[in-house]
Write a structure and sequence with these properties.
The chain is α+β, with helices and mostly antiparallel strands. Helices cover 29% and strands 23% of the residues. The two termini are 23 Å apart.
Length: 323
């Protein structure tokens, strides 16, 4: 690992990227297990316990637990909660809810960080149903989730050597705005990641292209757009963690950890290295060349460095980082 000239941004070696890939796969497995358990009647504390078991069973350590006093393994943010919702046995999911699950894992000192938002499907007869009359249609919520996830992948596609940091931010913003009239959260941003969970540089979800840090092979970033169905103003609850929309509108949050490589972006927290996500960005039926090569080259690096060798349970100022 080396530092860029400003002394703040880590540039990882291939072996170090391979270790981050292991942390990313543990994170992906924990998220998958938690999402699989999402159903009406389950508490967010139960989802937290599932994710923690998955991480520790892989020989890894939860990134979030104890971070600046944070009391849980995941952030579980429901409906108008944007990020950093604290899991609770009293937060019971209902059919129709949206829940963002944000999770991180540490393997041998290297971090992975990812998040996904899902809809709570209808459960068995007798399970808790929607809290009250639906505020949004099924189509409204489906489009919100699609827009937020697509914005993430458009941003990650710009994680290429020689590009600028704001190229990522601009791509996220442009994709979100093209999808509809969504509020784009500005106070909370993505971030660098590596030997710490939150590192320079911050990665906003808006901005003009061609500005900021020049991207270098070996840099790793956690990119995490947050979109809302109303206005983008936020409010911090009394627990000093949970961030909600000021107007009560519902939100979505997606995140991945991506490595900049000479061959293109390599999504460390995606089990296929980014293949399926980048496939959605097809142009004339082809996956963009840099993203396809980066995913293939990245997993080749991991294989050569021995990543996956231990038993995984996987068959600007004023802005704050998301967890």
């Amino acid at each position: 690992m080396r530092l860029l000239q400003d002394g703040t941004v880590e540039v990882k070696s291939p072996a170090q990227l391979a270790m981050m890939r292991e942390a990313g796969l543990v994170t992906a497995a924990a998220l998958r297990a938690a999402v699989a358990a999402v159903a009406p009647g389950i508490s967010t504390a139960e989802l937290d316990a599932i994710a923690e078991r998955e991480i520790r069973a892989a020989g890894a350590v939860p990134s979030f637990l104890g971070y600046h006093g944070y009391p849980a393994t995941i952030c579980a943010s429901v409906n108008d909660q944007i990020v950093h919702g604290i899991p609770s046995p009293h937060q019971i999911l209902c059919a129709g809810d949206l829940i963002s699950i944000d999770c991180g894992a540490i393997v041998e000192g290297w971090h992975g960080d990812a998040a996904v938002t899902v809809r709570v499907a209808a459960g068995l007869a007798g399970a808790r149903s929607v809290r009250d009359a639906p505020r949004y249609s099924d189509d409204d919520l489906a489009r919100l989730l699609d827009a937020c996830e697509a914005a993430l992948w458009h941003g990650m596609a710009q994680a290429v050597p020689g590009g600028r940091l704001s190229d990522i931010s601009h791509a996220v913003e442009q994709a979100a705005r093209a999808a509809g009239s969504y509020g784009i959260i500005r106070e909370y941003t993505g971030h660098g990641i590596g030997t710490q969970m939150h590192m320079d540089p911050p990665v906003p979800n808006y901005g003009r292209p061609g500005r900021g840090q020049v991207l270098t092979a070996g840099m790793t970033l956690a990119i995490e757009p947050m979109l809302v169905l109303g206005r983008p103003q936020t409010k911090l609850l009394d627990d000093d963690w949970t961030v909600v929309t000021a107007d009560g509108s519902w939100s979505a949050h997606f995140e991945h950890t991506v490595a900049v490589t000479e061959a293109g972006p390599w999504v460390l927290t995606s089990e296929d290295g980014g293949a399926s996500g980048f496939a959605r960005l097809q142009v004339d039926g082809r996956v963009p060349e840099a993203t396809a090569r980066g995913r293939a080259a990245g997993d080749g690096v991991a294989a050569m460095a021995g990543a996956g060798s231990h038993a995984l349970k996987v068959a600007p100022e004023g802005a704050c980082h998301g967890l």
